[in-house]
Amino acid sequence: MFRMTRQADYGIVLLACFAQREEGDSLNARDLAAEVHLPVPMASKILKALARAGLLASQRGVKGGYRLARRPDEISLAEIIDALEGPIGITDCSSGDHSSCDIAALCAVRGKWQSISGAMREALGSISLASMAGPPEPGPAAAAGRRPLPSAPARGKRARKEGSP
Amino acid sequence: MFRMTRQADYGIVLLACFAQREEGDSLNARDLAAEVHLPVPMASKILKALARAGLLASQRGVKGGYRLARRPDEISLAEIIDALEGPIGITDCSSGDHSSCDIAALCAVRGKWQSISGAMREALGSISLASMAGPPEPGPAAAAGRRPLPSAPARGKRARKEGSP
DNA sequence: CAAAATAGGACTCAAATGGTCCTCTTATTG
DNA sequence: CAATAAGAGGACCATTTGAGTCCTATTTTG
Ligand code: FES
Ligand code: FES
Which of the nucleotides in strand C have any atom less than 7 Å away from a protein CB atom? Predict the structure, then answer.
């Protein structure tokens, strides 16, 4: 449907590594990259961004590295994504002011998008890194996809999704 | 956060025009384009795609045009988006097979993303075109952004992977 | 000081998007 | 039947964006 950038995805994977270890464990870019099989420069770039955003604490110099700035259950997906791909909305238009879209003024659906966008943001905000790093069991994480995500009780909505590609 | 393509956005605006009129009303690309202040070729392109996807019924020839193939409350956002930007998932990886991502095998969070992706899909699937076209009142549409979208009970709770819900 | 790490950008390359145009087919109408 | 008004279906280009690399500081440790 929508696509998150790959970097954000990687970032979460990277952070999950921390979440799966001891609390204050410190790891450097090289080891981390090896762990998730990512090219070092890539991992490095992402880690830097994460550190800049305050999600990771960094330590320079020999024996330096990164560690989580907060407990894994105190970090939400929304924050990670924000850090890695900026606070953009679902649509160009729904993100704050109507700078990009020239039809914004007469756009009938603008407000709705903002609502939906906000809902997603909240949803992502309520999923913690800890739950992403947890076991694939029907634990907290599976629940993430479990609930039908009640949103708009679209009046007769059971529009069948017929067309199977 | 994520961004939907502009075309999908436009498509929804376009469809909303139909939803705001009489049931079987027919409109041609030119008029529609004028109504939403979009360049005609763009509108045309989008309408064609929508028709191909079966969301609009088209009539060729003089006095031709498009009209909704179904009732506005029988068309979901998910369908529209699928029609306009293909069935891609939140992450490259979460969309079906692990073709694109080379770290898919050892990716700890893959499964979780698929769940989340599915949840969003469902959420969008439950919002009808009718509710997008409706008044900005706290009607069905506002509700879209209302509920906190229960997903993973994250914040400050059992961080440890354990702790049965 | 030397080595090992992060910080911070600049840079390149490929792919996706937005947007336009052209040609063909179908229908209406006089 | 001919003219015209639509949609169908692509081809096409320009720009933006994203992925990924690299180079040069700046900090630490020993
Ligand atoms: S399409 Fe841009 S504001 Fe709605
Ligand atoms: S990052 Fe690609 S499968 Fe998780």
Answer: 2-10, 17-22, 25-29
- Mapped to the 3 state alphabet, what secondary structure does B25-86 carry? CCECHHHHHHHHCCCHHHHHHHHHHHHHCCCEEEECCCCCEEEECCCHHHCEHHHHHHHHHC
Beta-carbon count within 10 A of B57 CB: 14
**Cα B83-B136-A81 angle, rounded to 5 deg:** 55
Give the CATH class of A6-88+128-133: mainly alpha
CB A159 within 8 A of CB B125: yes
Cα A130 from Cα A112, distance rounded (Å): 31
Domain spans of chain A, in order of start: 6-88+128-133
Query: Which B residues, 39 through 68, put their C-beta within 8 Å of a C-beta on chain A?
Result: 53-54
**Does residue A153 register a pLDDT over 50?**
no
Q: Over 90: is that where the pLDDT of A76 sits?
A: yes
- Give A7's contacts (C-beta < 8 A, 6+ positions apart): A42, A45, A46, A49, A84, A85
From A54-63, A83-92, B5-14, B43-52, the region with the lowest mean pLDDT: A83-92
Around B142, how many Cα atoms within 13 Å sit in the side-chain half-sphere? 5
- Distance from CA of residue B150 to its chain's centroid? 20
Query: Is residue A2's beta carbon less than 7 angstroms from any atom in nucleic acid strand C?
Result: no
* pLDDT tens track for B131-153: 998 776 544 444 443 444 344 44
Residue type, B152: A
Residue A63's SS3 state is coil
